[in-house]
Amino acid sequence: MRNELVGRTRKFAIDCMILCSKLPKTREYNAYVNQLIRSSSSVGANYRASQRAKSTPDFINKLKIVEEEVDESNYFLDLLQEVSKIQKEDTSVFEPLLKESKELLAIIIASIKTKKANSN
Predict the structure, then answer these.
(1) 109: which of 1, 14, 42, 70 lies 20 to 30 Å off by Cα?
(2) pLDDT tens digits, one per residue of 13-65
(3) What CA–CA distances, in Å, run from 81 to 11, 26, 40, 91?
(4) Cβ(111)–Cβ(67) under 8 Å?
């Protein structure tokens, strides 16, 4: 599972970057695009960092950062999709990434709960 999540979080960051490269280059889009690129790449980076945690509390804290970053990525994906709807652009490209961000979020939350339960 660990290696699968490393790969999924990496692919998530790359897929978000590819999506962002296809969006219009305007000041308004760029603000959201920059945030999405930052948060989506932070998901994988922080997940990898969690695998080198020094203790259970350190591991949980690092996973909580992953949780925040994937939730933020989901927010900006949702926001960009909504803006694209308003601009009458194709919004179907957002669906796979929104689905993946929700799945990653559920996995991370479950991992945090499991680790907390096992450490008590």
Answers:
(1) 14
(2) 999 999 999 999 998 899 999 999 999 999 999 999 999 999 999 999 999 99
(3) 20, 15, 16, 6
(4) no
CA distance 35 to 52: 26
For the chain, what is the HEC assignment? CHHHHHHHHHHHHHHHHHHHHHCCCCHHHHHHHHHHHHHHHHHHHHHHHHCCCCCHHHHHHHHHHHHHHHHHHHHHHHHHHHHHHHCCCCCHHHHHHHHHHHHHHHHHHHHHHHHHHHHC
Supply the pLDDT for residue 1: 67
Rounded-to-integer distance, Cα 40 and Cα 82, Å: 18
pLDDT value, residue 3? 85
For residue 80, which amino acid is it? L
- Two structure tokens written together for 117: 């339960």
- Angle formed by the axes of helices 56-86 and 95-119, to 10°? 160
